[in-house]
Amino acid sequence: MSRTSPATIGPGDAISIDWEVKDLAIREAQFIFEGPNGTSTSASWRGSDSLSGTATGTLDEWQKSSEFKFKSASFSSPRGYIDFWATGEVWSNYAPDTSGQQLPDVSAMQFTFRNPAVPSAPFLATPAPAEFADNDGIAEDTYTILDREGVEYQVNGQTVAAGTYPGTGTITVTATAKAGFIFTSGTAIQWQFAFSSDRNTLDLSLPPSLVSFKRTSPDIVRDGDTISFDWQVKNIPVTYVLFYLRDRLGNDIQVRWDGEKAFNGTATLTVDETKIASGDLTLWGVAIGTGTTGLSYRDDGTIYKNPSGLQNPEPVSLDFKAAAVHLSPATPYQVTPAPVVFTDKDGTAEDTYTIPAADGVDYLINNTVVTAGTHPGTGTLTVTAKAKTDYTLTGTTEWTTTFKTTPHQVTPAPVVFTDNNGTAEDTYTIPATDGVDYLINNTVVTAGTHPGTGTLTVTAKARTDYTLTGTTEWNTTFKTTPHQVTPAPVVFTDKDGTAEDTYTIPAADGVDYLINNTVVTAGTHPGTGTLTVTAKAKTDYTLTGTTEWTTTFKTTPHQVTPAPVVFTDNNGTAEDTYTIPATDGVDYLINNTVVTAGTHPGTGTLTVTAKARTDYTLTGTTEWNTTFKTTPHQVTPAPVVFTDKDGTAEDTYTIPAADGVDYLINNTVVTAGTHPGTGTLTVTAKAKTDYTLTGTTEWTTTFKTTPHQVTPAPVVFTDNNGTAEDTYTIPATDGVDYLINNTVVTAGTHPGTGTLTVTAKARTDYTLTGTTEWNTTFKTTPHQATPAPVTFTDNDGTAEDTYTIPATEGVDYLINNAVVAAGTHPGTGTLTVTAKARTDYTLTGTTEWTTTFKTTPHQATPAPVTFTDNDGTAEDTYTIPATEGVDYLINNAVVAAGTHPGTGTITVTAKARTDYDLTGTTEWTTTFKTTPHQVTPAPVTFTDKDGTAEDTYMIPATDGVDYLVGGTIVPAGTYPVAGTITVTAKAKTDYALADSATASWTATFDTTHDTAKRLNDFTGDGKTDLIARDASGQLWLYPGTGTGDWSKRIDLGGGWNVMSTIVSAGDFNGDGKADVIARDTNGELWLYPGTGTGDWSRRQNMGGGWNVMTSIVTPGDFNADGLPDLIARDSSGELWLYRNNGAGDWLKRVDLGAGWNIMSSIVAPGDFNADGMVDLVARDTSGRLWLYPGNGQNEWFKRVDLGAGWNTMTAITAPGDMNGDGRPDVIARDTSGELWLYPNNGNGDWYKRIDLGPGWTPMTAIL
To answer: Where does the record place a coiled coil (predicted)?
Structure first.
C-alpha cells in the first residue's frame, strides 16, 4: 500500500491510498490515521470482490492543522478479515498463521493537514513522567525520557531528546509545552531523583525465578469486579509482579503487585469498563523483579533478562491460555430469540423443525445445543433458547410441538347437481380435490360433468395419507316431469278474402301446433274460413299460457285507393305525356280499353277511368281527364352578364346556356360562353322551335374606355439641414409615373437640394385620385452639433498635466486659432480651447474651455501608521504604509514600509518627497503597554426561533472586553436579530485576550417560522439521510444526495436488534445535529445524540416503562414552544403527547385522543402542509392514508384523505425533504422489497412516485 495523495493537504483535499493484496478478494478496505489528542481520520474503499483499489477520505473543514500518522489497515471480505497495525501486529480470522504477513514501511504514509481557516488553538499534551533506574552506582544507573507529542524535556536546564541516559547524582527533569500545545491544569511537569553511589555486589547466577501463577478470579468478570493472580517465585524475593493482559482492541492492561520483598502474593486489578474493551482478555506476558534484577516471560516462550548478564532462570512451564479471562459488559446485550419454526406434514418426511441463527443465543433440546438449520421432526419436541455469554434474553424462550402421525386433513369440495326436469341437461359435476376420491355405488367417478338421472348418491373417500373433514356425501333425485314452455302465438293476416289472407305457425321448442288434430309445420299458410290452431306439448315438455287461437277470414273484396294518373303538358311538344300507375287490384281504362302501367304520349282530350279487379273494391278518385295544349313550351331566358374593367382586356360579356333559347348580336347567334367586350353591345334572346319566351329578351351595355383609378403613394422628403443626408424618395406605385420638371424619376431615394416639386401622372388605362403633387425646399443651414467638453488633468506641474481633445462630429477644436487633433496633449500654463463648427454644422452649448495648470507639487495625503499593541508581547508592532510621495520618519530617520517591532513610545512623522506637498495627519504617536491583563471573553448566546420575534443574540458583560458587530461596539444585553450575524470580541485598553480564547461568534438565523422543523441530516452536509436496520441488527446510514438518491451506505454498528423501536428524532437535544431515539425490549427509552459525522455521542437514558406503547414517533415541536416533543400510542389506542421541558425530562403528558389502534402505521413528516405546524400521517387498517394537520395547540384540524391502497406497503417512514424541494416527503416499502419515494407536491397530494431500488426486504426498521 502507498499514499498517493500529497504529503500536505488542506480542507476539501482527498486522502488517497493505493492498495493491493493477494489470495483474498476484498470488498472493503479501511486505513486509520491518528492525529494529536485522540483525533483520527480514515480513508476507505468499498466495492465488489477485488485484489486492488484506491481508498479515499477527506478531513472536516473544522479540523485543526495536525500531523497524522498511520495507525492501522483493515481488509475484509465474506471469507474473513486481516488487520495490520502500525505496531507490527497482524490480526485475522481468515489466515490464523499470520507469521508470514508483513506490513510495508508505514513512515511514508503519514501526512500533514493544514487548515488556515481554523484558528490554531493549542492542543492538549500530557507529559510522561521520567523513569529512573538506580542500580546503586553502577553503569546501569539510568534515567529515561519518554517521547510525548507536544512535550519538550530539559534535564538540569538542558533540552534532551527522548531516550535513556546514564544516571548519577541528582537529576531534575522538567517538561515544557511545545508551540501550539498546552498542559492541562494540575499536570506534573518536574521530576527529581538522587542516584545512590553505593554499589552492591550483584549475584548474576541467582535471578528470581517464577515458579507458578494461577488466576484466582472468575472466568467471567464485569465492571467493578477484581481480576486476581496468585504467584510464587524462588531464589530471590521480588518487589513487583506484573501480569500483562490484552483486550480485543489491542489495549494492554496490567494486573500488578508491588510491595516489600516476597516469595509469593496476589496481583490484582479492579475492572473499569471505560478503559477496557469487553470480550476476551488474553495473558501475553508476566514480569517479576527486585528493582535491580528482573525477568519477563512471554506467551511465545521468550524470556527477557535484566540485566542481560543474568544466567538463564530454571525452566518453568507456564499455562498462559488458562489464565485468560472474559470481560462481560456491565449491561449484557439484550436479544430476543428468533422463533423456532415447526412444519407438520402429518407424519410425512416433510415434518421438520428449523433452528434459527441468532447472535447471542443457543437453542437446546434435552439440554443439548442444536445447530442452526432444518432438522427432521417427530413426536413431542421442546426447544429452549439459552443466552450465550454477555447476552440476556427477552421474549419467548421455549417452543413445543407434537408432530401429528395421522394423514393430512382435507375438506372435499361439494358435488354440483344440475336438474333441468328430466331433459338432457340433467347433470352432476365431480370436483378435483387433492386427497379425495368420489364414489357412486362404491365405484370411483372421475372429476368432470356427467349425465344425471334418477336418484344419485355420491360419497367422498380419503386417499392414502389424508383424512376428511366436513360433508362427505351428497345425493339428489332428478325430476322426470317435462320442461315447462310457453307456446309462441299464431299470427293471422286477414286481407279481406284476398290471396294475402294467411296464418303463420311459429317454431317453438317442445311445442307442436295442430289444426283438426293434424300437426301443421312452422311457416305461413293461406287462410280462409274459420280456423282454430291448438298448441300441444312435445315429449318431456309441459305448456303454460295460451294454447289455442281462432279466427274467421273475411270473404268481401279488399278495398283499395287507385293511385292518380299523371299528365305532363309541354305545350304540344313531344314531351306531352300521361303516366298510368301500377296499383294492386286496379285496372286503368281509356275508351273502355285497359292501358298498361307506364308513360304514354299525350295529345288532344284524354279521360282515364280506374276499375277494380276481382276481389277488390275502389275508394277515392276513379277518373282523370285533361286536354293537351298545342302551343310551344314557355321558357325565360337567363340574363347576359357584362364585365366592364374600364377599357381593359378584362372587359367581357357572358352568354348563358338556356334550353329553347338562342342569343343573337346583330341577328347572329352567339355561342354560350365569355367573349371580349367593347363599344356598345346589344344581345337579343330568340325562342327555339317549340318554345315561347317570357321575361327579358334583350340586354344592352356600352363598355367604358377610361383607365383604372389609382391613388399615388406620397413622396417622402428627408431634410438634414443641407447635409448629404438631404434626400427625397419616389415610391413604386402601379399605373403612376412621378415627374420633376416633366421628367419621369425612377422609384428610389435621390439627393435633395433647393426647391423640389414632384408631380404624379397616370399611365395609360389609369386615372388618378388623391394628392398628385408634392413640393419642399431643403434647408441650407448646417446640422446642429454640441461639442463634447475638453478634459484637463492637473497633477500639480508634473508630467501628468494634460488636456484631452474629444472627437466630435462637425466640430474642430482650436488653440490660438489653430486646429488641435483629437487626443491627449501635455498641458502647461494657461490654456484656452475653442470649438468651431465645420461646414454644414452649427454649434450649441459650451464652445470654450480655459484652465491654468498649477506649477506647485502634487498634493498627497499620508496613509496612517498602524499600531498593534498586544500588551508587551512579541506581537507589539507598528506598520509603515507605502504612500506615493511620502516618507515616514522616526527620530528623523526614514523607516521603510512594512511591519516593525514596537516598544516604548514611538512617534512617526510623514514628510513630503520632492514635487509633493502633504495634507491631513502627518504625525502618529503611541506608547506600547508592557503588562496587559489577560481575559477570556464570555461567549455570545444566540437564540434562533426560526424567523420569529424571539430570534435574539445576547452580549455578555465581560471586564476588559468590547463586543463589536459590523465594527461597532454593542453594549451588554439582548438584541433582536435576523439573517447572518458575526460578533467579535476585542480587548479594551490594558487588556489582552487569552491565547486559547474564542474571539468571534457567527450564526445564521432561519428566516421562516417552521415549528415543524425536522432534521434528518446525520452527516452534516445539509441533505436528508435515511437509516435502516437489517435482520442481523446492523444499523446502516444511507447519506442523501438531495435529489432523491443515496451515496454509499455507512455501517453504524451492530447490536441494534435489542431495540424494539427506533425512530429518527430530528435535533432532539438542541445541538443542531440529528439524533435517534430507541426503545429496548425492557421498555427503556434511549437518546443517541448525533455528532453530525455519522456517529453518536454517549447515549442518554430517557426513562423506563415505554413497553406499554405500541407506536412512538418524534414529530418535532408539536406544541409550538420551541422544543421538540414525542408522541406515543398505548395499547388501548390512546395517543399521548410528551412535551419536552428543555431540561432532559417531560412536562405532564397531554391526551391527544382515543381510537388510534385502528391505525397500522403512524409517522411524523414534520410540517407536511406548509402551514408552520407539526402534522402526523397515519394509515388505517383498510390501507387508507390520512393527514392529521396539527394546529400548534395540542389538537388537529380536520383530517385530510391522502388516498387508498397503502396496505400493500410493509413500511412507511417520513425522513424529511428527500428531493431538495423544501417539502417533507414520504418513503414506503412494498411487499416485494421495492422502496418508493412519494414526493410531496405541497397541496396535500403527491407528484409521481420514484423507484428508490429493490432489496429492502431484509430491513427490520427504516427511519
So the answer is: none
DSSP label at 322?
G
Phi-psi region of 765 (alpha: psi -120 to 50; beta: other; left: phi over 0): left
Return d(Cα 1240, Cα 1222) in angstroms, integer: 9
pLDDT per position as a tens digit, 509-551: 889 999 999 999 999 999 988 999 999 988 778 889 999 999 9
CA 105 to chain CA centroid, Å, is: 45
934 Cβ neighbours under 8 A, 6+ residues apart: 991, 992, 993, 994
Cell numbers at 318, concatenated? 507456564
Q: How many CB atoms lie within 10 A of CB 478?
A: 20
| Domain covering 209-327: architecture | Sandwich (2.60)
Q: Strands 325-327 and 220-221, how do they pair?
A: parallel
Q: Which of the residue ranges 108-122, 382-396, 768-782, 828-842 would you say has the lowest mean pLDDT?
A: 108-122
Whole-angstrom Cα distance, residue 911 to residue 412?
A: 120
Give strand ranges (E) for 89-166: 90-92, 111-113, 123-125, 131-133, 142-145, 151-155, 158-160, 163-166
Residue 1185 has pLDDT above 90, yes or no: yes
Sign of CA dihedral 1067, 1070, 1073, 1078: negative
Q: Which of 298-307, 1170-1179, 1218-1227 has the lowest mean pLDDT?
A: 298-307
Take residue 765 and report the three cell numbers written for it.
388605362
Same CATH fold, 1026-1262 and 2-94? no
Q: What is the CB neighbour count within 10 angstroms for residue 358?
A: 21
| CA torsion angle 657 658 659 663 (round to 10) | -90
Closest C-alpha among 1062, 1071, 1061 to residue 1144? 1071
The conformation of residue 22, written as its DSSP 8-state character, comes to: S
Q: How many CA atoms lie within 13 A of 72 on its CB side?
A: 13
Q: Using the CB atoms, write b or e for 1181-1190: b if 16+ within 10 Å.
A: eeeebbbbbb
Amino acid at 342: F
3 state DSSP class of 1058: helix
How far apart, in whole angstroms, are the C-alpha atoms of residue 282 and residue 253? 10
Cβ partners under 8 Å of residue 29, min gap 6:
19, 44, 45, 53, 55, 73, 74, 75, 76
User: Which of 1164, 1162, 1196, 1160 has the alpha carbon at shortest distance from 1180?
Assistant: 1160
Domain ranges for the chain, please list them: 2-94, 131-194, 209-327, 333-402, 408-477, 487-552, 558-627, 633-702, 708-777, 858-927, 933-1005, 1026-1262
Please give the CATH number for the structural domain made up of 2-94: 2.60.40
* Radius of gyration of the chain measured on its C-alpha atoms: 59
| Cα–Cα distance measured from residue 1130 to residue 1128, given in angstroms and rounded to the nearest whole number | 7
The Cα–Cα gap between 69 and 82 comes to 20
> Where does residue 163 fall: left (phi above 0), alpha (psi -120 to 50 degrees), or beta otherwise?
left
Q: How many Å apart are CA 132 and CA 167, to the nearest integer? A: 8
Residues 760/772, Cβ–Cβ less than 8 Å: yes
Task: Give me the phi and psi of 988, to 5 degrees please.
Answer: -75, 175
For residue 1103, give the C-alpha cell. Answer: 426513562
Cα(1153)–Cα(1144) distance, integer angstroms:
25
Name the band, by pLDDT with cuts 50, 70 and 90, for residue 421: confident
Topology adopted by domain 1026-1262: Tachylectin-2; Chain A (2.115.10)
Give the Cα-Cα-Cα angle 707, 708, 709 (nearest 5 degrees): 115
Asked if 552 contacts 529 with a C-beta cutoff of 8 angstroms, the reply is yes
Which cell goes with 752? Answer: 435633395
Residue 830 has pLDDT above 80, yes or no: yes
Phi/psi at 110 (nearest 5 deg)?
Answer: -65, 155
C-alpha cell at 945: 426561533
Q: What is the DSSP string of 1062-1116?
A: EEEEESSSSSSS-EEEEEETTS-EEEE-B-SSS-B---EE--S-GGGEEEEEEEE
